Amino acid sequence: MGFFDDKQDWLRGVFAQYPDTPQGRRAALMPMLRRVQQDEGWISPERQEEIAQILGTTATEVAGVMSFYSYYQALPTGKYHLQVCATLSCAIGGADELWDELVQELGILRGDVTPDGLFSIQKVECLGSCHTAPVVQVNDEPYVECVTKARLHALLRGLREGKRLEEIVLPGKVGHEVHVRGEEVGV
Questions:
Q1: Which end of the chain is more exposed for a tag (fewer CB within 10 A), N or C?
Q2: Is the pTM of this model over 0.90?
């Protein structure tokens, strides 16, 4: 059974947003990728092929679009996929040291998932919060900002305890902490 077999109403709604042409149909690629990513945590080669067939394109084109956005995962991810911003502001703020700490603490590299299935990690390009560098993003949640090693360990501990991101108390009172729908919480 294909991922979209039981989502025909959802597909019709997405296609209705674009011109009824082959090019317009291909514009649905991003929402389709996002739906698979949200529901399955990653986009397998089989899902890429399914999307390509529905849109009348190739799996190579689907993979090409995916490769441009760090949000889309072509490898399985843990329950919590931690993305560490590695561009200039975050690098100056200590992102490389945070990455090393994550690798050591979790015992995994990019593309791996911890044996308990909880965590996967990835360095990403700019998350767009340079003023609160370094920044970590958990799944598709708001950013965790001004991350230090102490804050990183508190974050991991909270996630292991099954807490929601906004419930995790991070040490230190540095800048913004966690934003929920544009509002600061936990400061």
A1: N
A2: no
